[in-house]
Specification:
Elements: H1 19-29, E1 35-40, H2 42-54, E2 58-63, E3 72-76, E4 81-85, H3 94-104, E5 111-115, H4 126-137, E6 140-144, H5 147-156, E7 158-161, H6 165-172, H7 181-193, E8 197-203, E9 209-212, E10 217-220, H8 233-246, H9 251-265, H10 276-287
Parallel strand pairs: 1-2, 5-6, 6-7, 7-8
Antiparallel strand pairs: 3-4, 8-9, 9-10
Length: 293
């Protein structure tokens, strides 16, 4: 990457993105069914809809007046560095975000995945409202976000959260804690013990992930692979684990599906996400069992 010079690039790859869309893409790849609820505005919103249609996802689209953003990931071949360029997202009106909230509850769902940053104009208790509505409906909320929306949703109570080590340390007031199993268990039990969540999964990057169900813990190391891009790896983990849970797998097995899906995603370029064959191979490496989904 150099300033001022005209930099020639290879042909671009275009994929639909956003946390919830990525989760739905992975669920589809692994044979599950989900409904992606998302907003779309202007020509870029139509492009997003067209790209999602190419993946064959079931959707509930909420039209908005502002422009859907386009994010870019540039991979520099000479160094292997990856640059992520994410402009500000659209600003939503109260009527638009309330329409999104209503859309979530138009369908019967065993699991609701609440993930990603909130657009401008959306109140920080939006995911808490989702959690509140889900409890009334008997749905389980899987929460993957950060900051104040994360804190407020936890106050309402959810089924599962997926913080990283830094977020977990800040949330539990244990800044500087390490990543040993004992330290992780002490932190996750603080959340489970006060009833904010039933399950905690801690993403540890290259060191794998840690699961605490309240009844026991599991730590899985990430298989060593050649990394092409980390874009969407966290969303892929959530999608893989969610489809495993929805199919009735034991939670430890669903956890392994999540780790396999997240790892499989780093094998692909840009925002391509995981391929089923890679997920199946990595799941077998992690568990010694054949993935049956």
């Amino acid at each position: 990457m150099e300033p001022e010079r005209k930099l020639r690039a290879s042909p671009p790859l275009n994929f639909p993105g956003g946390g919830g869309v990525n989760v739905s893409r992975v669920i589809k790849v692994l044979g599950g069914m989900s409904i992606a609820v998302f907003t779309a505005g202007w020509a870029t919103g139509q492009l997003l809809r067209d790209l999602i249609d190419q993946h064959g996802l079931l959707t509930r689209v909420v039209p908005i007046h502002s422009r859907t953003r386009v994010s870019a990931t540039a991979f520099e071949t000479s160094t292997g560095q990856e640059y992520r360029i994410t402009p500000p997202g659209p600003e939503m009106t109260e009527a638009e975000w309330r329409a999104c909230l209503d859309a979530v509850f138009e369908f019967e769902a065993e699991y609701i995945v609440a993930t990603g940053s909130l657009p401008r104009g959306v109140p920080e208790d939006f995911y808490a409202r989702v959690a509140h509505g889900a409890k009334k409906r008997g749905s389980r909320v899987i929460l993957d976000c950060d900051g104040e929306p994360f804190h407020q949703a936890l106050g309402e109570g959810v089924y599962m959260v997926k913080p990283n080590l830094r977020e977990l340390s800040e949330l539990t007031g244990t800044a500087g804690a390490g990543g040993s199993d004992a330290e992780l268990h002490a932190m996750t039990q603080k959340l489970i013990g006060i009833g904010r969540t039933e399950v905690v999964v801690v993403s540890l990057g290259g060191d794998g992930a840690f699961l605490d169900t309240g009844a026991g813990t599991v730590r899985l190391r990430t298989p060593k692979v050649a990394v092409k891009s980390a874009v969407g790896a966290g969303d892929s983990f959530v999608g893989g684990m969610t489809v495993g849970l929805a199919r009735g797998m034991p939670i430890e097995s669903a956890f392994a599906v999540g780790v396999a899906a997240g790892t499989a995603t780093v094998l692909t370029a840009g925002s391509e996400l995981c391929r089923r064959a890679d997920v199946e191979r990595l799941y077998h490496d992690l568990t010694g069992s054949v993935l049956a989904l």
